[in-house]
């Protein structure tokens, strides 16, 4: 990545990229804490964000290939967990047991190829990770579009728009850092590298939390739980439901 290695600390390869990864751990833990009474699928999804953060710190802090796998493999499982939440969001089960099994096998196959490629074929590992992850992102986005189309609450629609803006901006930062590193390292007027990959981490953390939160809200609506969006500490949104009116357990 574009950050100079061991520039800030002798012990940390990419200081800012490692530091910003803490945000993923925080939003993941907060998500689990604030939604502890919700279905396990959402606890798994929030929790997976925290695991991605741990792997990201390990990778950016060392730049070792085995620890890179601790960053990328959890990302695949995290998006798979979110995909399950998006697709199985009705008050009834849409698909049989084959669906979660297929998702698990998808993750397992990706893991085997990534780990099997090893540091000896980094291009194969890169292509497999990018393609498998991007495909699942497109699957999630296609279902988010359907969810958004049915929303009547103006505030919830606005939250979705804000989430999309954060995600898109963060992705732009990722691309600038990745593709225009020479420009970022040689900005005019003596300006330093803005560390856009670190900002990508921050945006991805907030975006991941909000997407999971809003899918959780949609699920509660479909279960007839009359969800409300409230704010913890005046800063963090979370979902509150009335389980007495639930259509399904």
From TrEMBL:
The chain crosses the membrane at residues 15-35, 42-59, 65-85, 97-117, 123-148. One of its GO terms (cellular component) is endoplasmic reticulum membrane. Keywords: Calcium, Hydrolase, Membrane, Metal-binding, Transmembrane, Transmembrane helix, Zinc. Its main location: membrane. Its cofactor is Zn(2+). PANTHER family: ALKALINE CERAMIDASE 3. Belongs to the alkaline ceramidase family. This is Alkaline ceramidase 3. The gene is ACER3_4.
């Amino acid at each position: 990545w574009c950050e100079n290695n061991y520039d800030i600390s002798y012990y940390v390869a990419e200081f800012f990229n490692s530091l910003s990864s803490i945000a993923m751990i925080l939003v993941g833990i907060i998500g689990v804490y604030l939604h502890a009474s919700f279905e396990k699928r959402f606890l798994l999804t929030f929790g997976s964000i925290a695991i991605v953060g741990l792997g990201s710190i390990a990778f950016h802090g060392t730049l070792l290939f085995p620890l890179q796998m601790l960053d990328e493999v959890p990302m695949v499982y995290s998006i798979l967990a979110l995909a399950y939440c998006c697709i199985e969001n009705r008050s009834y089960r849409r698909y049989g047991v084959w669906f979660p099994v297929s998702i698990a096998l998808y993750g397992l196959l990706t893991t085997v190829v990534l780990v099997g490629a090893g540091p000896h074929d980094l291009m194969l590992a890169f292509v497999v990770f990018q393609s498998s992850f991007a495909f699942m992102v497109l699957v999630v986005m296609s279902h988010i579009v359907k969810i958004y189309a049915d929303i009547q609450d103006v505030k919830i629609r606005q939250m979705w728009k804000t989430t999309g803006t954060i995600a898109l901006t963060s992705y732009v930062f990722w691309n600038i850092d990745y593709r225009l590193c020479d420009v970022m390292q040689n900005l005019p007027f003596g300006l330093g590298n803005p560390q856009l990959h670190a900002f990508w981490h921050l945006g991805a953390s907030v975006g991941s939390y909000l997407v999971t939160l809003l899918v959780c809200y949609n699920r509660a609506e479909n279960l007839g739980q009359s969800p409300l969006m409230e704010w913890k500490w005046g800063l963090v949104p979370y979902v509150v439901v009335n389980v007495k009116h639930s259509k399904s357990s």
